[in-house]
């Protein structure tokens, strides 16, 4: 399965041979397109559907004579790669928050809102200017407001987000990471995304991507990942890989299902009629590991496949859409999944995180991040990345990390304080999570009063703080079997590590919504006048005292006397 | 004299120690009236923590103290409370001396004035209790207590200013220049105190204040040389302490350009929160010039009375600076007993004291309503700010009026008569 290769450790090269059908001795075509859909019923009754569309192309975008003949690879993205010297690009648009405790781990994690992280090639001289242009171009390609990405929400992580493709990890100054938690995903973003596919939304699995059903789900995430991969195990040449993924979780109750019965038509309001003609492989996988007795699948299939994904050995029923027989006599494939019973325990996810804001009032607050390690006896380190906007002034001396009530000092802390209106806070820590424990990270902050023009149109809605990113190599469930030394020969069972011993996982916490104190927006003129009046009162009093001197006051004669004096003066007679 | 002063000191230290140990200390340390982004203790601790993490404290926007303060507290951070109390006590002793020396001046003036205004001159007996009153006004002033308990570095600034006053009054030109330079290094505004210091020395050394005299210019050059020399030394020392010039925009750029709009008791924050972007630079310049602007006119008017000039300058700085706190207000309020002989000429003292008291009580109430209860908005707090500043301005101008009027009576007699023999009224014309 393609997903098994993505979540392996970052320095894996090439693809570990999955136990599925494609033999590696067939010479790869110059460009290749594969599509797959994995459907996994979840314990809460929801259905998780994960689409992946992969295009591989053995070309070199970085050479001088520009690539001009695009076939399967979308031209807009190819031009972006060559113009901005991109080594890796990952962009995702998500609506909803992935509930790890109810749904397990996703194949491809993503935070709510929009997230973009890019590794640039070493040849780029001014990374910040290139980043700014790149975000504007991508904002046009995906019809999203990525132009709001600027220096106030971009960070350069120093340890997280290592490249997922091949290549030497060099300077982190070529990495940029930004997230827009407030970004909303809608049909306007799905349409250009679908246009990047070779078959568009006309054939193959992409016909199922209908926006009225997709955006009616509990969770919807669409992403584009571009990176370089090796062509063969010797890795003498590389090819560019473009993966477009859609992860959706359909809610049982939301779609008005009375009984627990899913079908492709009910989920997507379409059925599959043919594979994409340009695809070399087009498959549909249904996860039947958990409960083979608990539901029935029709039409039945004999193809089975097993893979270790996310540290767990899963069994899948496979439907190969390139075969005519899959579609049967009606020439359309409408899978039906009928639940029979309700038991079964979901495997608890080993790593899970939550985040919330504590405190009251608009002056101060505290950010609490809780990380749960559910492994019974193994502890593992996690890398926590926190990017907090500048208007929440963090006080790093109040940072405290406690596990099981005791202080747990991180072994690596990288902190970049924010500069007002220029860059956000960046906090990266490597924390060891003890087994079966909760680790709490707290840090206090102070809320700033901004200039009245810096508030968004609805200032009392609050300001979003992007999700924290927790990256870790988690010991896998498959390797949790401590009894395994019984059946194996002694020469292979001394060290507890074996292959598939740990898998890479990235978790995103909830984004935060924080209120800031607001000035009165209707009062700029009044405030200017009143304050200037007070300053003028000061100036006036001191001016009076400085420029005038004391004199004895002569009383003013009455009106009659004054007129008489005037007449007397005219007559030349001394006044009264 | 020593016994009541010692008793007062003990009482003051007890109050502060009791408050330090109670839970109120944390509450007070967070109050925006007592601490500002420049003087907050929390930020000093944050700067030290950043230094420990290996990051320059000036790379962020949280820390705005000078490098000397970092290094001082690097060693003294565990003894912070004691440091503040010591600086406080030093303050008192210095003010005590200041007043002692004022007495001499009054004695000199006694024989210059007409007979009936002699009652305006204070006898040494009256002046005996002034140092105690000054000490009481400073030590038992709730503003000072709050400022000390909050461990605001305003207390240190006040101590340096008090040392400056002491060395000026005692006649030590070099020390006066050095302490003034230290005070300027901490916050830029004390530079305006150069003028009264120079005028005082010139008066003491019998140099006439005349633009055509060489001795006048020569003295100014000497003083400025000492002042600027020590300032240069301090700036270079700070550069070598941290190895970079980062602190200049972080400390002085911050004070002058007011990027942080945290509410305080001053006029700047709401004004610049509601300012149209186009005019921001213009009004920033206007407000900053406003602080320095009164130096020359006041010096010309009060060239015979440099000590009162120092008081006026101090008051102007405390009211119009960019991030005032109650500690700054307490500093010039402590000098009021020195001019207790002006009380008969003050016109608004009742109104001003009522307004000041009412505002001091209303500040925390309206802050709570805005920030915690959510039932008021920022305008309420801003209104009290305006009122507080108007009251302070009235107070200062009232004392100035009283001073000028006393001078007028000293030269022209106390009971003035009009041409027809009836009692005269004096007006400003």
UniProtKB/TrEMBL annotation, chain A:
Transmembrane segments: none annotated. Coiled coil: none annotated. Residues 12-27 have a biased composition (Polar residues). One of its GO terms (cellular component) is GPI-anchor transamidase complex. Residues 1-29 are annotated as: Disordered. One of its GO terms (biological process) is attachment of GPI anchor to protein. Signal peptide: none annotated. Pfam families: Gpi16. This is Phosphatidylinositol glycan anchor biosynthesis class T. It comes from Oreochromis niloticus.
Automatic annotation (TrEMBL), chain B:
The keyword Signal applies. It is a multi-pass membrane protein. Keywords: Endoplasmic reticulum, GPI-anchor biosynthesis, Membrane, Signal, Transmembrane, Transmembrane helix. Belongs to the PIGU family. The chain crosses the membrane at residues 130-153, 173-202, 214-245, 251-272, 279-296, 308-336, 348-373, 379-401. InterPro entries: PIG-U (IPR009600). Residues 1-25 form the signal peptide. It comes from the Eukaryota. Its main location: endoplasmic reticulum. GO terms for cellular component: GPI-anchor transamidase complex. It is found in: Endoplasmic reticulum membrane. The gene is PIGU. GO terms for biological process: attachment of GPI anchor to protein; GPI anchor biosynthetic process. It comes from Oreochromis niloticus. The keyword Chloroplast does not apply. Pathway: Glycolipid biosynthesis; glycosylphosphatidylinositol-anchor biosynthesis. Pfam families: PIG-U. This is Phosphatidylinositol glycan anchor biosynthesis, class U. PANTHER family: GPI TRANSAMIDASE COMPONENT PIG-U, PHOSPHATIDYLINOSITOL GLYCAN ANCHOR BIOSYNTHESIS CLASS U PROTEIN.
């Amino acid at each position: 399965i393609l997903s098994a290769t993505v979540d392996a450790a970052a320095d894996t090269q090439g693809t570990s041979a999955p136990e599925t059908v494609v033999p590696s001795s067939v010479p790869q075509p110059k460009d290749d397109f594969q599509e797959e859909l994995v459907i996994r019923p979840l314990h809460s009754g929801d259905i998780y559907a994960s689409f992946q569309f992969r295009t591989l192309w053995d070309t070199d975008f970085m050479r001088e004579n520009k690539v001009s003949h695009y076939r399967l690879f979308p031209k807009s993205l190819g031009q972006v790669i060559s113009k901005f010297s991109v080594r890796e690009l990952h962009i995702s648009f998500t609506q909803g928050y992935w509930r790890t405790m109810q749904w397990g781990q996703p194949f491809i994690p993503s935070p709510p809102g929009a997230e973009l992280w890019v590794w640039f090639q070493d040849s780029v001289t001014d990374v910040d200017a290139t980043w700014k242009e790149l975000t504007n171009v991508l904002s046009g390609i995906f019809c999203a407001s990525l132009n709001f990405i600027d220096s106030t929400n971009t960070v350069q992580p120093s340890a997280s987000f290592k490249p997922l493709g091949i290549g030497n990890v060099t300077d982190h100054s070529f990495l940029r990471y930004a997230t827009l938690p407030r970004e909303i995903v809608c049909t306007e973003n799905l349409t250009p995304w679908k246009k990047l596919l070779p078959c568009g939304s006309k054939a193959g699995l992409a016909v199922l991507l209908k926006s009225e059903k997709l955006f009616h789900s509990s969770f919807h995430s669409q992403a584009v990942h571009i990176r370089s991969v090796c062509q063969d195990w010797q890795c003498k040449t590389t090819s560019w890989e473009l993966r477009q993924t859609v992860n959706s979780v359909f809610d049982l109750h939301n779609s008005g299902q009375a009984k627990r019965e899913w079908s492709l038509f009910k989920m997507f309001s379409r059925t599959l009629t043919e594979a994409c003609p340009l695809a070399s492989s087009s498959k549909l996988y249904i996860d039947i590991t958990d409960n083979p007795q608990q539901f029935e699948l029709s039409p039945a299939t004999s193809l089975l496949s097993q893979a270790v994904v996310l540290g767990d050995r899963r069994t899948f029923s496979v439907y190969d859409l390139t075969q005519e027989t899959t579609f049967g006599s009606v020439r359309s494939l409408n899978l039906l999944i009928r639940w029979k019973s309700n038991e079964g325990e979901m495997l608890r996810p080993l790593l899970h995180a939550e985040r919330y804001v504590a405190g009251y009032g608009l002056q101060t607050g505290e950010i609490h991040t809780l990380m749960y390690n559910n492994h019974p006896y193994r502890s593992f380190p996690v890398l926590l990345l926190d990017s907090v906007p500048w208007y929440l002034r963090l006080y790093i001396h109040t940072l405290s990390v406690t596990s099981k009530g005791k202080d747990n000092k991180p072994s690596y802390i990288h902190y970049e304080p924010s500069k007002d209106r220029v860059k956000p806070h960046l906090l990266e820590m490597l924390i060891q999570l003890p087994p079966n424990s909760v680790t709490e990270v707290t840090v206090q902050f102070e809320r700033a009063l901004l200039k009245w023009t810096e508030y968004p149109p609805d200032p009392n809605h609050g300001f979003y703080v992007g999700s924290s990113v927790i990256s870790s190599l988690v010991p896998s469930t498959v390797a949790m079997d401590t009894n395994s030394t019984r059946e194996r020969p002694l020469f292979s069972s001394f060290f507890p590590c074996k292959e598939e011993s740990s898998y890479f996982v990235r978790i995103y916490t909830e984004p935060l919504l924080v209120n800031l104190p607001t000035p009165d927006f209707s009062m700029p003129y009044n405030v200017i006048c009143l304050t200037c009046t007070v300053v003028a009162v000061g100036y006036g009093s001191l001016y009076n005292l400085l420029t005038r001197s004391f004199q004895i006051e002569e009383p003013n004669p009455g009106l009659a006397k004054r007129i008489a004096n005037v007449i007397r003066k005219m007559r030349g007679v001394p006044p009264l | 004299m020593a016994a009541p002063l010692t008793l007062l000191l003990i009482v003051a230290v007890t109050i502060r120690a009791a408050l330090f140990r109670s839970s109120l200390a944390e509450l007070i340390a967070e109050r925006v009236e007592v601490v500002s982004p420049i003087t907050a203790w929390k930020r000093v601790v944050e700067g030290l923590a950043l230094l420990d993490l290996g990051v320059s404290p000036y790379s962020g926007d949280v820390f705005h103290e000078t490098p000397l303060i970092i290094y001082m507290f690097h060693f003294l951070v565990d003894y912070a409370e004691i440091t503040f109390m010591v600086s406080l006590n030093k303050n008192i002793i210095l003010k005590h001396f200041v007043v002692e020396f004022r007495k001499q001046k009054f004695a000199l003036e006694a024989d210059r004035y007409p007979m009936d205004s002699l009652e305006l001159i204070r006898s040494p007996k009256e002046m005996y209790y002034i140092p105690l009153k000054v000490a009481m006004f400073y030590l038992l002033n709730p503003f000072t207590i709050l400022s000390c308990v909050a461990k605001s570095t305003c207390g240190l600034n006040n101590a340096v200013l008090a040392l400056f006053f002491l060395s000026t009054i005692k006649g030590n030109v070099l020390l006066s220049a050095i302490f003034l330079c230290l005070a300027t290094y901490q916050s830029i505004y004390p530079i305006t105190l150069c003028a009264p210091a120079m005028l005082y020395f010139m008066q003491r050394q019998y140099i006439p204040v005349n633009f055509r005299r060489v001795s006048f210019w020569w003295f100014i050059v000497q003083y400025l040389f000492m002042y600027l020399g020590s300032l240069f030394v301090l700036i270079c020392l700070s550069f070598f302490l941290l190895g970079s010039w980062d602190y200049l925009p972080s400390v002085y750029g911050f004070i002058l350009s007011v990027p942080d709009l945290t509410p305080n008791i001053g006029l700047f924050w709401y004004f610049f929160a509601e300012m149209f972007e186009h005019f921001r630079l213009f009004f920033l310049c206007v407000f900053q010039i406003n602080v320095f602007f009164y130096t020359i006119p006041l010096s010309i008017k009060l060239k015979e009375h440099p000590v009162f000039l120092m008081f006026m300058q101090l008051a102007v700085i405390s009211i119009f600076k960019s991030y005032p706190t109650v500690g700054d207000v307490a500093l010039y309020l402590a000098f009021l007993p020195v001019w207790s002989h002006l009380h008969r000429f003050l016109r608004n003292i009742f109104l001003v004291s009522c307004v000041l008291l009412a505002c001091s009580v209303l500040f925390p109430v309206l802050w709570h309503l805005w920030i915690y209860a959510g039932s008021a908005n920022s305008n309420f707090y801003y209104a009290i700010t305006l009122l507080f500043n108007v009251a302070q301005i009235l107070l200062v101008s009232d004392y100035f009026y009283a001073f000028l009027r006393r001078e007028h009576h000293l030269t022209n007699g106390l009971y003035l008569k009009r041409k027809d023999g009836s009692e005269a009224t004096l007006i400003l014309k």
